[in-house]
Amino acid sequence: MMATEEQMWAAGKLMRDVCLPKFPKVSVAIADDIHEGRLPNDKDAKCYMNCVMEMMQTIKKGKFQLESSLKQVELLMPDHYKASYRRGLSECKDAGAGIKNNCDAAHALLTCFVGTIEIFIFP
């Protein structure tokens, strides 16, 4: 079964609804900026990104999970996103390597994704 845009965004909204309340300093406007690929260099925003990425099984304890990320792309994304995401995930797999802080690692990975993936999307 192929995922639709609606299913993808519904899954994304769920993650957003779980993570946003955990970081009261991250407003909906900040979350919308991140969604658009504008990533604030701010502790709470970085930890919000980490929260969503952990829910997406993209990152675990600050370590990028390439296999589960690729699986999520196959399950949750409509076909027209897949090639760009596969390439971006592979190119960025080491972007967070060696970064001790989980939130900083998530920010480094997302920064790479924004620069690499043509149609970047984030919940």
Automatic annotation (TrEMBL):
Places the protein is found: Secreted
Pfam (any one): PBP_GOBP
Database matches in InterPro entries: PBP/GOBP (IPR006170), PBP_GOBP_sf (IPR036728)
Predominant location: secreted
Protein's UniProt keywords contain Nucleotide-binding: no
GO biological process entries: olfactory behavior; sensory perception of smell
One term under GO cellular component: extracellular region
Keywords for the protein's UniProt record, in alphabetical order: Secreted
Keyword Secreted among record annotations: yes
GO molecular function: dibutyl phthalate binding; odorant binding
Protein family membership: Belongs to the PBP/GOBP family.
PANTHER family in the cross-refs: GENERAL ODORANT-BINDING PROTEIN 19A
Protein name according to UniProt: GH17928
Organism of origin: Drosophila grimshawi (Hawaiian fruit fly)
